[in-house]
Every structure is written in structure tokens, then in C-alpha cells.
Write a structure and sequence with these properties.
By secondary structure, this protein is an alpha+beta fold. The chain contains three helices and two strands; from the N terminus they run αααββ. A two-stranded antiparallel sheet has the order 1-2. A hairpin with a 5-residue loop joins strand 1 and strand 2. The chain is elongated.
């Protein structure tokens, strides 16, 4: 698909880079002064950026562990962070 080729760079972005571009897209769309064809294109890119951010966040959440504290207040191990 043509959009996949255009958005191929997204997979290499850090969370911060993707979020920054997504914020710029939202700003552009909210202003409403973008031509229709451009609005569609940047909206689709925004969707791809959002998906990438969601994937990176999920990956980070999977890596986070919660430190268990014993009665004495000292760490005595870790356990997976409860996903809510």
C-alpha cells in the first residue's frame, strides 16, 4: 500500500519523536486551514503514529516491574506491574 511506504519511517521513531509529530498533526487539523487532501493524508499518518505510540507504550508497560517491599520496608523482590 502507498501509505505504508510513506509511513515506513514511523517504525524507526522513538516514542517522543512520534508523539511530537502526532501533536503537530493534531494542531494542523484543529486549525482547519489544511486542504482536504492534505487533511486526509496527515490524518492517516496520525493514525499510524498513534498506533506506533500505543505499541511502544505497551512494550514499556510489559517491561516495568513493581518492587515488593517486606514488612521492614526493604525491597524483597519484584513482580509484574498489574495492567489496569
Amino acid at each position: 500500500m502507498a501509505n505504508e511506504a510513506v509511513n515506513a519511517d514511523i517504525a524507526k521513531m522513538t516514542f517522543e519523536q512520534a508523539l511530537e509529530q502526532l501533536e503537530q498533526i493534531v494542531d494542523n487539523l484543529e486549525r482547519g486551514d489544511v486542504p482536504l487532501e492534505e487533511s486526509i493524508r496527515i490524518y492517516e499518518r496520525g493514525e499510524a503514529l498513534k498506533k506506533h505510540c500505543d505499541t511502544l507504550l505497551k512494550s514499556a508497560e510489559d517491561k516495568v516491574e513493581k518492587i515488593r517491599l517486606g514488612r521492614d520496608g526493604k525491597p524483597n523482590g519484584t513482580e509484574p506491574l498489574d495492567a489496569e
